[in-house]
Amino acid sequence: MAWNLDSDRPIFIQILERIRIDVISGKYQPGEKLPSVRELAAEAAVNPNTMQRAFAELERTGLVYAKRTSGRFITEDQEMIETVKSEIAKEKIRLFLDSMKELGYEKEQTLTLMRQSMEGEKA
Q1: 44 burial level (CB within 10 Å; 0-12, 13-18, 19+)
Q2: 0.85 cut: is pTM over it?
């Protein structure tokens, strides 16, 4: 099934985000081999060159590394994975807070709504 990619942002950035989330959520485990560029490109319904560009960026950041003839693997550096997880979480929180501010909510009002929502989930 094709990935849900939108035309509002560069495709390779969306692919980067998707793979990062797959890593931090545990879909791909540390040290696990990633599917090939062609396999993932077919799954995402994108050009293999676009997927290659995303993989190159993942390698540059160290989240993924290549073994010359074996393919690409997820880093085994758990600290790096936790750092990426924290960075993504902070960005999502910032976007959420910006949205709430746009709606006219102050920080305390937002916190109150969050607490109410979280308590509602427990029930």
Answers
A1: buried
A2: no
